[in-house]
Amino acid sequence: MTVVEGMPATVTLRRNFWRGVGRVMRRKPSRMVGVGIVVLFVFMGIFGPLLYPDPLPRDDNALYASPSWAHPFGTDFEGTDVLALVVTGTRYVLLAGLTTAVITVALGTAIGLLAGFHRGRWDTVLMRLTDLQLTIPGLPLLLVLSTVWKFTSPVEMGVVLGLLGWGGIARAVRSQSLSLRERGFIEAAKGLGLSTRHIIGRELLPSMAPYIAMNMLIAVTGAIYAQVGLFFLGVLPFDANNWGVMLNLSVFGGGALSSTAALPYLLAPLLAILLLTLGIVLVVDAMDEIFNPRLREE
Amino acid sequence: MTRTSAPGVRIDDLTVVYKTPAGELPALGGVSLSLAPGTITGIVGESGSGKSTLALSLLNAVQPPGRISGGTVEIDGLGNVVDLQGEELRRARGRQVGYVFQAAQNSLNPLKTVGKQLLDLGRSHDFDDLPALLKDARALLGRMGLDGGRVLDSYQHELSGGMRQRVGIMFALVLNAHLVVLDEPTTALDMITQASILRIVRDVHHERGLTTLIITHDMGVAAEVTDSLAVMYGGRVVEHGPTTEVLGAPRHPYTQGLIRAIPRLSGDIDEARALPGRPPTLGTIPKQGCVFRERCPIRIAVCDTVDPVPVTRDARTVACHAVGQPATPVTPKEFA
Amino acid sequence: MITASGIVKTYKQRGNMLGARAVPALRGVDFAIPRGGAVTFIGESGCGKTTLGRIVAGLETYDAGEIVIDGTPMSSLKPRHREPFFRRIQLIHQDPYSALNPTRTIHQTLAAPLALRAKQTGRDKAWMEQRAAELLALVGIDPGYVLPRYPHQLSGGMRQRVVIARALTVDPEVLVADESVSMIDVSLRLGVLSLLKDLRERLNVSVLFITHDIATARYIGGDGELYVIYRGQVVESGPTESVISGPIHPYTQSLLSAIPVLHGVERPGPERVVPTEALDESHADSGCLFARRCPFATDICTAEPPALVPDGDQAHACHHPRRRSVIPVEAVA
Q1: Which residue on chain C is closest to B189 by alpha carbon?
Q2: Domains of chain C listed by start with CATH number
């Protein structure tokens, strides 16, 4: 690694970081597969709805059609293409999942860091707050909430799930920072008189980055399960196009569990969930190496 | 207790390589070394010198990604250890070769008492007479100044660092091994504890008639207890000979530099000089030529291309082009 | 100039149901660190020397006693106002591997405290860059090589030099070096030690050297004061060379006797002292703390604690003081 003359060190650093990320990803084929899957879903989430007309066309002559070239996963009860439903449903699922992940990680990390770094009174107050959050029963609360709130926007969904899920991360981050604050470099930073903001933001946080990134990705999968589950249970109104809605209709409307006609309609969203989860899990494997300079460079 | 004589050990052209992304790199590059029966030999080297790898090779216990790729390790009564495998090898460890691990202070099982672990050891080596084993252990611990009964009933956390080290030595000796390898026996111990452990090592060595090998980074530790001293650098033994002679009149420039770099309690303290440069790691050991040449004050042209062969004269072995043949001094003109 | 008097620190060990057990780490320690001087604390692990270093560096509180920094007693200040004083005292950690943040390059590591310094003194970014390079050159490493690198790419000796350079960013008056070379390769140790020695002369920095290895103390602070600590108490003090060549307290004598002899170069000292081993871990706190291990102890030793009394230029706390010659002697070739 050499610093190119006349270029700010930070630019070089950033470029080296991304080059390192590429190297880490190429190290195992499974990671590349994971990246491929995640990129595919993100693409579907962003451009999916643009590929199909809105509303999706119905074909009354082909209700619950079997898979064919025109309809790779068959059609639903209205004769709409199942693949199109899966693709257009991705945006809601991903957006809600991402919102949840951002909120849980941001809240959890901030609270965990503050509590772990400051100890004392801060710690006590924040941890009691965390305990409180952890004791809130999520599902019953959501059931109650859904009676008054329609969750038509994925961001609303994500916010609610996020506010219900940061406790675990806060605890984990707190215990991590408790052990990190005893390390020599944190003590040295304190001894040099560096600001608390610097110590938390620049010294503690990067050391926990792999951990936080992993939690974030896992939170995405958790959020996907949660919202799909809610829609599947029929708790939420069917205003939105969502994989969970498809599951619900296929099982309770199409009888996918007892007859084969609606089976592709059931399997398509399941496959999507499975594939997305697999993709994320394969990527999580690389986080440790990405954020650890030693593992990244070698 | 059956008395068998102390075994001799002959290591010949031993090569150990580690598999890395950059290919197979040699941690030991053709080491030849003999341990005379009944002596204490010290191996001194810095991190990356290959001293611990050498110690593991005595048990054929080099772990992947490392492997012994060539050479032999002959131990009296065992034969060539490099050829031993499976069950045979397991039995040799402990029965014939006792090993006190690096950081032995932390190598006890925290969930079992010392006595329980001793019984486990006895059973795994098919000892029928377990009470006798316990008796031996108590006697050994008593010899080292501990209350044997109490120690056997203790858990790891109830013992101090020095006591744990003694327990480690007891484990190495209790199966009646006559070749004992101690890897950094006094690291992380206090000065006074270190002195008493070294005294114990020396006394037990003589009383039980052992062949002992001590691996250390500390010249002082080796100086205090060993009869003969081997200095390792970059996976090679660069100097070997009787301890007092090697210390009193070191021949290899590395040994000389190392001794000069020790601050001492008497004499002019400002005579201590730092060694320039830094020791090589596995990846930076030069592929050809002398491994020490980068830091060498008496380097000559041939050092860049030819790895010096260890030359033995008057029981002293030195691997250096510049001091190999002191009878025919190097004419500077020839290499200018 | 820093003076400390009667420093007491007691740790509360979480005990059983009957309550916490108090573990005394320091039992009233007095010392002074003159400007540009060297002070060494020597003792075995658990004797309280590390705690003392951390207290001096402001990383730990003390229960009783007073630290006066440049004439200002610390007890007269609020904790917030003590910080600038303690910033002049920088601790060099024992472990150069954990003392540097593995996720930050050396450039980033040095830039943070330098930015703070630049803000305080109204300097610009160019000064920071220049100062970083200057400090690295001062500690004997090539800035061009080290600055863009991460800690894991450097050897132990280099890392410890970077740690020292980082401490120097705030222009400290005192460096507290706690076993600063024990984790570095032997051939590189003396280099770091001579750097510390060098800094004393070139920057007029004082060094508080904490170690169990008296020979390194002699190398860095041969002209300074040596304090021998046993179980939280100073048992002997005096000019380093005097204490080494003529130790009075049996504990100092035991420590010096325990140093390995380089056979072939040295002969063992004529009056080496070997302490009796205290197998019982529960220590009685009455009388002399060393009495149980002392080969010269008599009845008075277990009954009455000896006070630290001056004796020539040394001071000792012993009922039976006697100078003994214990260190190895140069073997005549």
Answers
A1: C45
A2: 1-88+172-185+201-245 (3.40.50.300), 100-171 (no CATH)
